[in-house]
Structures are given as C-alpha cells and as structure tokens.
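2024-03-11 09:14:02 INFO queue: dequeued item Alanine racemase N-terminal domain-containing protein, len=51
2024-03-11 09:14:02 INFO validating residues
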Amino acid sequence: MTRPVVAHISAAALRHNMAVVRQHAPRAQIMAAVKANAYGHDVALCAPVLA
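2024-03-11 09:14:37 INFO prediction written
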C-alpha cells in the first residue's frame, strides 16, 4: 500500500531563502516561474514571496 507524498511549504523559510540568495548575488535579477498552482504547493502562498 502506498501513501500520498506531502510537502509542507513554509513562507518564512522561502522568504529566508530568497534573502540569502539576494545576499550572495545582490546585483542578480531573480525570476521565479510559478506554474500549475505551484505544483500543488499553493500559488497564493508561494507567488507573493517570490515576487
């Protein structure tokens, strides 16, 4: 019997990760592609953090 795969997305962790990327590459432009409802991870949560 198989169990469904579940991924929990933390907006705070995603925000932190984006800040770390910006610290390491301050002049780089970041473009995030959020497709298909963020592949089930809730586009309403992910998109504002990545904008």
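2024-03-11 09:14:37 INFO annotate: The chain has a mean pLDDT of 86.
2024-03-11 09:14:38 INFO item closed
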